[in-house]
Amino acid sequence: SVIVPPSIWTVMSDRTDHKVIECSALNSIPAANISWLLPDSLTGHVSYNSTDNNGTQSVKAFLQIPACLHKEHTITCEIEHPALKQKEMRNITVPPCFAPYITVQTGKACEKGREYTTVECIAITSKPAANISWTQVKNSTEEFRTGHVTHQNGTETVSSTFRVPTHLLSGQDIVCVVEHPALLTVERRTIRLPSTTSPAIKVFLLTLKNTPRMLAICEYVGSLDVNITWLLPGNNTGDVSFT
User: Fold this and answer.
1) For residues 223 and 114, is the Cβ–Cβ distance under 8 A?
2) What is the pLDDT of residues 141-165, one digit of tens each?
3) Distance (Å, whole) CA 88 – CA 74
4) From 93, 100, 133, 240, which residue has the greatest number of CB atoms within 10 Å?
5) 160 is in which domain, residue-wise?
6) Same domain flag for 11 and 66
7) Secondary structure (3-state) at 144
8) What GO terms in the biological process aspect are recorded for it (predicted)?
9) Most distant CA pair in the chain: distance in Å?
10) How far is CA 157 from the centre of its chain?
């Protein structure tokens, strides 16, 4: 009888919440037997797929494991076939996932006479991506957005940003809460937003020396852009200037 050895290869791919390791023994006669050897601390779901192509047999074995492992593991794919003098062993090393690198930053900007504070929390992790939430910002945000980028090196960057009128959260502690399987507990990053002083308006009148004219001053001190106008009684006029 004809015996043809298999072509063997392995590949590991990432899914959203798990990894899949594929071990294939292709185009052999007869079909190869594939089994998995896992470390004692690791479990996984195994499935198989077999095909016949013009009399040759191809077998694919799939091992599904958690996306995040807390330490490095070596998994072995074991192939048996009559054409092989001994079992063919292929080792696949699965690296551990790492805890998120977290940064929080703030910024300010004025828009249409109102000052806004922007707070951004960024978490860089191995797969899977981290989950970000906030405290102290419910029902007070003007804008809220998230971002997610998967990099070629396998890392994931997640960002969460909100923008709020500065006075609404002035002087308060804002907490970015990050969850990831590599963390034993959730990580929190606290940032205190700067306090803003209440706006102050002063109006006073000065008598100028050696002239019948008077100087009226309206002064605004605060964090917002404002427009100041004068309403003069009767047909009175005056020269207006701003500083």
Assistant:
1) no
2) 567 889 999 888 878 999 999 888 8
3) 16
4) 100
5) 101-193
6) yes
7) strand
8) regulation of neuroinflammatory response
9) 124
10) 4
